[in-house]
Design a protein that fits this description.
Elements lengths: L1 H9 L5 E3 L7 H7 L3 E3 L4 H7 L4 E3 L8 H8 L4 E3 H10 L3 E6 L4 H14 L5 E3 L11 E2 L5 E5 L4 E3 L2 E4 L8 E4 L13 H12 L7 E5 L3 H5 L8 E5 L6 E9 L2 E8 L2 E8 L4 H16 L4 H9 L9 E6 L2 E6 L4 H14 L5 E5 L12 H7 L5 E4 L16 H8 L3 E3 L2 H4 L5 H11 L5 E5 L7 H4 L5
Parallel strand pairs: 1-2, 3-4, 5-8, 5-11, 6-8, 11-12, 12-13, 13-14, 18-22, 19-20, 19-22, 20-21
Antiparallel strand pairs: 6-7, 9-10, 14-15, 15-16, 17-18
């Protein structure tokens, strides 16, 4: 919401917002871009502003005083993805990056690739990209790159956001079960991806992960041509000869069995090689040369909260990662072992998403930390929403780990400073030279802040 608000301001619109608690750096970013944000929801404000359009975020529910006023007074309301489609994408070539994992990284890689190629793309990225100072930009070129989220659009529109973005190039990175609060099972998610693919026109293209069997199940519904990417021999776009080191990775790219070049990337991980392969494929599809694509690959800088080095704490290097799904965590752990080969890894994981708070992935979460030397499990987010039989069983998880570990109990999780409990354990466990990594899509009970300075 904040990134799009600033982008609309750059287009010349007068933009205001309401949010009870607004955190940095978004608070300063919006102020610098001339977006005034009010710290309460006040119907009188809407009356005085008389806006032409009210953008309703998907976190806003019926009962919100400003929303109720807007409905009662027939103000024009729109969801965030509708606004992005109409105001930012418009008639531009629309590149939409979708999938359970890797959306933010692949969107950032693709945007940087196209920028290096001189296409001056607009973009909306669900994170703070390393190559740009903003997360959303209108762009002066004829291409717009969007992170295509499968989460719902608004209280009145339960369709995934990506169904609004009219893709010309639709990327399907992977498909797994996630977002247990809005999807009942994997079949429900597959249905939405089938609808997404059916949006692509005949002169567009679907770029799909050819190594993912679930992706293969949803591909036979559209009219647009499909090209697959992956490591497998049957993929149209292939990564071969992947070599990783603490300095990054290098690999060859084959297109329909023919080598198009050798590429160097500053990031590690098999998943990041595939993410970059998507960026390369998009760049070449949109007219870039192979040489420019090599520049785009080498110049990529990771966005914040993706294997981000935060500094030192008690002699250990602290890395912060947004990973909250067990597949993403496992892939990141493997990449960390390559980047930091001689360090013990102390992994801290917060089961905060609606999926990991429940026991859907009890076994997979355990397997995610096979490479860790010690593990801390944070508090379950609002565990009272689920019965004991539905919740992630942290006690069983700790027993099965078979290595130094700690977990926050249900009772401890009710305390506002439960992160302090893990912090104290880390003080006793962490040794100089270790790698301390936090996996969370939140603040980990304040632990991330506590680890931000060397004490």
């Amino acid at each position: 919401m904040g990134g799009v608000a600033a982008a609309c301001r750059q287009l010349g619109y007068e933009v205001y917002g309401s949010e009870e608690v607004l955190y940095e750096p978004m608070k300063s970013y919006l102020a610098e871009n001339g977006v005034e944000v009010f710290s309460s929801f006040d119907p009188a404000r809407l009356l005085s502003l008389n806006p032409d359009l009210v953008v309703v975020g998907n976190a806003v529910s019926r009962g919100n005083e400003e929303l109720e006023f807007a409905l009662e007074h027939k103000l024009d309301c729109i969801s965030l993805p509708e606004l992005v489609a109409k105001t930012l994408i418009g008639k531009k070539t629309s590149v939409v990056i979708a999938g359970t994992h890797g959306k933010t990284t692949t969107t950032a890689m693709t945007t940087n690739m196209l920028a290096v190629g001189g296409l001056e793309p607009g973009f909306m990225i669900g994170g703070v990209p390393g190559n740009f100072e903003v997360s959303c930009l209108p762009g002066s070129g004829n291409v717009f790159v969007t992170e295509g989220d499968e989460y719902d659009s608004a209280y009145y529109d339960k369709r995934p956001k990506f169904l609004h973005y009219r893709p010309d190039i639709a990327v399907v990175n992977n498909i797994e079960f996630d977002h247990a609060d809005i999807f009942d099972d994997l079949e429900a998610i597959k249905k939405q991806f089938r609808l997404f693919i059916r949006l692509v026109p005949r002169n567009g293209i679907v770029l799909a992960n050819g190594d993912d069997p679930v992706v293969a199940e949803v591909l036979k519904v559209g009219c647009a041509p499909v090209e697959t990417f992956g490591f497998g021999e049957n993929c149209n776009w292939r990564v071969v000869g992947l070599a990783e080191s603490p300095d990054g990775s290098e690999f060859d790219v084959l297109r329909d069995g023919v080598s198009i070049g050798h590429f160097h990337s500053p990031v590690t991980g098999r998943f990041n090689a595939l993410n970059m392969l998507v960026a390369i494929a998009c760049g070449l599809r949109l007219g870039m040369t192979v040489e420019k694509a090599k520049e785009g690959t080498e110049s990529y800088r990771p966005q914040k909260r993706r294997m981000e080095e935060k500094g030192m704490w008690h002699g250990a290097l602290v890395v912060d990662d947004f990973g909250h799904h067990p597949t993403a965590v496992k892939q990141t752990m493997a990449a960390l072992k390559v980047r930091y080969p001689n360090k013990r890894i102390i992994a801290c994981f917060e089961p905060r998403s609606n999926t990991t708070t429940r026991n859907f992935y009890q076994k997979e979460i355990l397997e995610s930390f096979e490479e860790a030397d010690a593990v801390a499990i944070g508090a379950l987010d609002r565990p009272w929403r689920y019965s004991e039989s539905e919740r992630l069983n942290v006690e069983e998880l700790l027993k099965a780990l078979g290595k130094p570990s700690i977990g926050v109990t249900i009772e401890q999780g009710k305390e506002s400073d439960w992160g302090r409990y893990i912090y104290q354990w880390l003080e006793e466990t962490v040794q100089p030279g270790d790698l301390l990594v936090t996996f969370s899509n939140g603040d980990f009970g304040g632990l991330r802040t506590m680890l931000s300075s060397d004490e």
